[in-house]
Amino acid sequence: MKPLPAPRSTTQRTLSSLAMARTAASKAVAMGTSIALSASGR
Fold first, then answer.
1. What 3-state class would DSSP assign to 35?
2. What pLDDT is recorded for position 5?
3. Residue pair 12/4 in contact by the 8 Å Cβ criterion
């Protein structure tokens, strides 16, 4: 992989952090949903 120029790399970092935040949020939602389902099932 070639190093990107500074402005592009900043954009890439922002995009990757956004994607990581979205993934973490969806994971938290899935975990909360499964916990709520198991709690209501008990």
1. helix
2. 61
3. yes
